[in-house]
Amino acid sequence: MEAAFSLQPPAQVSFSWSSDGTRLTVKTDTLQFTTDYVLTIAGSARSVHGFLLDGNGDGVGGDNLVITFRTSRADITAPKIVKMYPKQGATNVELHPIISAWYDEELDSTVDMAALFKLERFLDHTYVPGVLKHYVVNRQSVLTFFPNAPLNPRETYVTRIFAGLRDYFGNVVVNNRSYSFVTAEVSPTTVRIDDFEAGVGNWWAPQQSGSTTGIVTERTGRQEERTLVDLLTGSTTSMRVDYAWDLAAPAWLIRTYLSGGAPKNVRFDGSWMLQVYVFGDGSGTLFRFCVDDRVPDYQAANHEVSPWYVVDWVGWRLVTWDMSRDGTGTWLGDGVLNGTLGFDSIQLSYEPGGAAQGSLIFDDLRVARPIGVSVQQPLPPVLSSRRVLEGYPNPFNAVVTLQYEVPDLLQLQRVRVVMYDALGRKVKTIVDAPQAPGTYTVQWDGTDERGQNVASGVYLCRLSTEKGAAATQVILAR
Question: Which one of 98, 358, 415, 428 is at 20 to 30 Å from 231 when CA atoms are compared?
Fold first, then answer.
């Protein structure tokens, strides 16, 4: 039977039989797309009892069995979103975010994508002006929207992607998609370390660092990049780090060291956040920050690192190391940030199962701290438990239930629960009275002090007691 089998055009096949010898399975993964094939089993094939194959079923053996078929197109499904940023329901999103949609295949660039990809301000349903870019990475598309200006604080925005996008095989997306998110209350103050507009001369190539190991050296390096840049800041130059890993090595590390110049002189401490925009390749490569502690005592034992971040996205993403909350990773130092800090290096590593080679782009490296926060001006006390103040359901249509805890001070204390709109204006006082420690539940029906219905949108509920304050956002969607 196997010797009598043929396929035209030819393709490699494998055979397997059922245990009773009555079922033959033929497998192949070498067929061509959109191709007519003729499968033939010649009438010379015989059964175990010596009878010739009756290919046409007329009761007489010796004739061929012939099957004709056509294979499908290379792609018969419409493009699908792999990952969205900000994701649906995200809160506390930076006020000047990069909006991105990563697709599982390459989109047809002849489509008017700017007409189909919009960022909407939910409060008045207007579209936010900005620039849409289409990037292709490893035969996958990412649509990236750069708003022209920061968004409003504590507001809901909706990324709308309308039907009409398609791939190069003509498969069209037929459904509209929407992803809502809520912006943060404030934008942090930032201090630039390096925006790379002066090039990458202050950065050593990875091979110059004695810490770099486990690389294919001729395919690893750093250089200026002028095509992929952070348009939020009007950047024209970024830094590209090309990596290629020697998979047989026992360990892997690329250290792109900041050797000097003005960026090396930026000083900060552990109350700040380190931030950089990273254009990811979805490779699973590991990335982290490294700082010098106890500057100007530059010795290896004072190198501290952030935790590793897995580059599991394609396109631009702001990566933040909140040094006071996220802790440190493990490298040469003692894991404690207790002195004056300076920037040391950008580091990459290989994670088994990740890509063996690729490129990552870095732009607008900086330190950031919430406005008004300093060593001399600490934040006011905040009730830290996540269960101190909650609203449900959220979003809500008619009534939201607010549950809150009065902290245990072993005495009555004045408690205020107040609703504010997205512009910080007081809408309604829900509670203003002395209360004993315990858990309480109240409701807000979406009305103001006069009993009038307020518009759909994002509202801030603030709880204040003698021990501190807490706040939560609720979304009214009529």
Answer: 358
- 43-69 in b/e burial notation, b at 16+ Cβ within 10 A? bebeeeeeeebebeeeeebeeebeeee
Rg of the chain (C-alpha set): 31
Along the 478 residues of the chain, how does pLDDT read in single tens digits?
999 999 999 999 999 999 888 899 999 988 998 899 999 999 999 998 899 999 999 999 999 999 999 998 778 899 999 999 999 999 999 999 999 999 999 999 999 999 999 999 998 899 999 999 999 999 999 999 999 999 999 899 999 999 999 999 999 999 999 999 999 988 788 899 999 999 999 999 999 998 999 999 999 999 999 999 999 999 999 999 999 999 999 999 999 999 999 999 999 999 899 999 999 999 999 999 999 998 888 888 899 999 999 999 999 999 999 998 999 999 998 999 988 999 999 999 999 999 999 999 999 999 998 654 333 333 334 444 445 688 888 888 889 998 888 776 546 678 889 998 877 788 999 998 888 778 888 999 999 998 999 988 888 888 887 777 778 888 888 7
Closest residue by Cα to residue 105 from 73, 128, 132: 73
CA distance 236 to 222: 17
Burial class (CB in 10 A: 0-12, 13-18, 19+), 151: buried
Three-state secondary structure of 309-362? EECCCEEEEEEEEECCCCCCCCCCCCCCCCCCEEEEEEEEECCCCCCCEEEEEE
Q: Which residues pair with 143 in a beta bridge?
A: 101, 134
DSSP label at residue 420: E
DSSP bridge partners of 342: 292
Residue type, 145: F
CA atoms within 13 A on the CB side of 350: 23
- Of 231, 200, 238, the closest CA to residue 363 belongs to 238
Q: How far apart are CA 403 and CA 392, in angstroms?
A: 8
Give the position of tokens 């849409």.
132
Query: Which amino acid, 374?
Result: S
Cα angle 42, 43, 49 (rounded to 5 degrees) comes to 120
Please state, in angstroms and rounded to a whole number, the distance separating the CA atoms of residues 81 and 96: 23
10 Å CB burial of residue 23 (0-12, 13-18, 19+) is: exposed
H or E segment to which residue 475 belongs: strand 469-476
Mapped onto helix, strand or coil, the DSSP state of residue 265 is: helix
**pTM for the whole structure:** 0.66
